Amino acid sequence: MKAIEITKPGTIKVVERPMPGHGEDEVLLKLKYVGFCGSDLSTYLGKNPMVSYPRIPGHEIAAVIELAGSRVPENFKPGKNVTVVPYTNCGQCSACKKKRFNACRYNQTLGVQRDGAMAEYLVIPWQKIVESESLSSIQLALVEPLTVGFHAIDNAGVTDVDTVLIFGCGMIGTGAIVRAKLRGATVIAVDIDDAKLEIAGQLGATYLINSNSQDLHAEVQRMTNGDGPSIVVEAAGNPLTYKAAIEEIGFAGRVVCIGYAGEEIAFSTKLWVQKELEILGSRNATPSDFEAVINYLKQAKPDEKLLVSKIVSVEEAPQAMKEWSEAPGKVLKILVRF
């Protein structure tokens, strides 16, 4: 079968891999669309510390069940359209004992710690399958990337009295914008790309700030009547936005961190203490986040053209990754069609 392989940093190509066999508790999936994630870009650039090479990337999945093992429940029948929860969980670590399986100490995400879904076929335990006959294949491929932002907003306990500032309007930030708006919050979207900010506005952001061309602090103060936001979500993974999150958050506020900055960051502890801040991490997503995103896509039916920058064939995927690496700010989502 054809697969896309990142052989080493800077090298991505189409390779032939043997067809996988499935066990009694597993399903064989025929892939239809797989999205390139920011973690895949980091792998290509050699900036993902959790990856070893060679690696097949990909964990944003739209597929159809091809075959099911003998112990797979009957409702997972061949021909069903599905997506996948791409994380493992050990069931024994402290996070798993608290039923926070998304934060499992020993998690292995498809395409990161283990080979992913950028191939014609994939074998997966049936427990990780999420079915939805009501969504299109393109929508199914958008579910997982949106869940990460949904999860961050739920972690923060956002309600309709909150003003939520979100740094980064990529796919994860987009999920956070949508979820915060669904919860009735006032949303401030911050990015350096006007095209992404325009999409953020169409998806529910109340205010838009281009931090390259506008005075971030002055705009935030104006938009919040001098109080600052009650919640800040860092979804850019940039040292500058991490520092700005602490500076811009209002007193007694909550900061939720999703992005990996890739380097150590020095903060003013004075602001942490004076503002009595809550600093939260947010990792991956839960099954309930998948359900929430599916409900959103089913009911709201957002324009897929807003969320998908480009759809490419398997053969075009290496060039698409190269072009993305050269202009990362211009891409929201690339889907590979199998």
TrEMBL record:
Single GO molecular function: oxidoreductase activity
Domain of life: Bacteria
Pfam families reported for this sequence: ADH_N (PF08240), ADH_zinc_N (PF00107)
Alcohol dehydrogenase-like N-terminal domain sequence ranges: 23-131
Limits of the Alcohol dehydrogenase-like C-terminal domain: 172-297
Swiss-Prot/TrEMBL keywords: Oxidoreductase
Oxidoreductase is among the record's keywords: yes
Protein name: Zinc-binding alcohol dehydrogenase family protein
Higher taxonomy: Bacteria, Pseudomonadati, Bacteroidota, Bacteroidia, Marinilabiliales
